[in-house]
Amino acid sequence: MNAIIQNSLKNSYSYKEYRALMQAYAAEGKTTGESTEAHVYYTHLNEARMHRLDKSLQLFPEVALQLDELRQDLIWIVLAETWCGDAAQVVPILDKMAAHTPKIEMHVVLRDEHPELMDLFLTNGTRSIPKLIIVDKISGAVLEDFGPRPIGAKQLIIDYKAAHGVVDETAKTALQKWYLNDKGMSTQHEIIELLKVAVV
């Protein structure tokens, strides 16, 4: 296994631990990463979003069936930060998928504490999160990665930026509405398609 990946696992959180960290930080007016007023605000907002998603998210039956058929033991490493709106929407979905099968062991690592890992999985040269790294548990080989957004959400931001030149609060609100309407369907199906290709 790559030494950078191995080191990140030693300093990772389970999803339950990550949620506890976020809850504590939201209550205390703190944030992971750079401590700015905006990051503190978004950590508080994302805590409410993730609390709702933890209760309401469901796996689609066809996704659950595909996960049941997994034969390969996998490690999922998820790069995130408490202030990230996309992470607040995507990471609970990843947890639902991982929790469904003993074949997936999921770890959450903080991007800003693991820049070397993040730099191995840049998106168009940027440290965009969340980022899921799918690793074969036996060999340590990286099989695939996903993120930071499903295709529909990605296109929404591309189109908005092309029309307005910036990604502002209006764009962020539209993005959150997209996630709400999608109900996790796109993320679940896109990851299942990756697993079909990458996992034997």
Describe the structure.
- It is built from nine helices and four strands, in the order H-H-H-H-E-H-E-H-E-E-H-H-H.
- It is α+β, with helices and mostly antiparallel strands.
- A four-stranded mixed β-sheet has the order 2-1-3-4, with helices on one face.
- The longest helix has 20 residues, at 37-56.
- It is globular.
- It starts with a helix and ends with a helix.
- 35% of the residues are buried.
List keywords for this structure.
single chain; 200 residues; alpha+beta; 4-stranded mixed sheet; 9 helices; 4 strands; 12% strand; globular
User: Would you identify the regions where 5 or more consecutive residues have pLDDT less than 50?
Assistant: none
Beta-strand content bin? 5-15%
Element pattern in H and E: HHHHEHEHEEHHH
Number of helices: 9
**Helix/strand/pairing class, anyone?**
alpha+beta
Number of strands: 4
Relative helix content: 55-70%
Distance between the termini: 19 Å
Strand order of the largest sheet: 2-1-3-4
**Quick one: overall form?**
globular
Largest sheet: 4 strands, mixed
Mean pLDDT score: 96
**Computed Rg:** 16 Å
Give a brief description:
This protein has 200 residues and is of the alpha+beta class. Helices cover 56% and strands 12% of the residues.
